[in-house]
Amino acid sequence: MRVDTHLHAYADAAEGLHDLTAYPIVEYGEKDDVVFAGVAGTVDDALRALADADVDYAALLGSYELPALPHPEGGARHWPVPPAHPDHVDGLVAYNRWLCDVGAAHPQLLPFVTANPAVMTSAQSGAHLAEAFGDWGGRGLKLHPIAIRTYPDDPGLIGVYEACADARAPIVFHSGPDLRGYGWSDPAAFAAVAAAHPRLMMILAHLGGASWRAVTALAEAQRGIFFDLSEIVMWIGATKGPTAEQVVGLIREIGVERITMGSDFPWYSPGATADVVEGLPGLGRGERDAILGDNAARILRLV
């Protein structure tokens, strides 16, 4: 079985093209031969990409971001209570409903809904997610701390973590540095959440991104955290990226059983990402199969 644990799709091409241009990839430095997917990222684009790569399932990841990406007032570390932007509740709920409807129509797309503590209280988020996991078919959750402008230990996310733990729904977190150095998604920022919520299944995306050197300390301290290889393997050899040998070294230190394959489509394609994983030096057939799908199948209860 092949499983992509990190895929995005959009309701229309314009929305996808906006995100592709609004989030340029700069953290890995320079590399001339990065292979991008070259599509807008509609649902149909995603389905074709999975079929072309012989990928059986993909986690369809959501992210609900506020216009202009506001920060908490006064430089606060976390969003206040009550939430600063409650007028977006209906939009957030509708977006999660859309993700689940897409998953219902296309069973190979596993809907990972999202949350935002600037929009809902901890209790509201918990109740909403319990419904999404229980009645709508939600299979997991995605959080992008940089995009929602808060740290993973925001108290407004406690209800989110409790709902995910109760539903055995994994959370995919964006991980990596932000341009201004706030550290919202630095690997170390997730240690407190993992310690406080031991039932939570956490997958840190991008193997830490350009903060890849910091993931082994976190992985050793919190043995329950998983990591995906999305994006970072496409930047192997970049000026701030790892070499292929360093990626394999990280996989060995963390443990192959804790690594999954993700594409970060539509930035990159599942097929091209799987090809890079297949070519990583020194991995055996069983290890490659574990990364390409067997580990994710276990996490997502697909087998």
UniProtKB/TrEMBL annotation:
Coiled coil: none annotated. Residues 3-302 form the Amidohydrolase-related domain. Pfam families: Amidohydro_2 (PF04909). Gene3D superfamilies: Metal-dependent hydrolases. It comes from the Bacteria. One of its GO terms (molecular function) is hydrolase activity. Keywords: Hydrolase, Lyase. The keyword Lyase applies. This is Amidohydrolase family protein. It comes from Microbacterium rhizomatis.
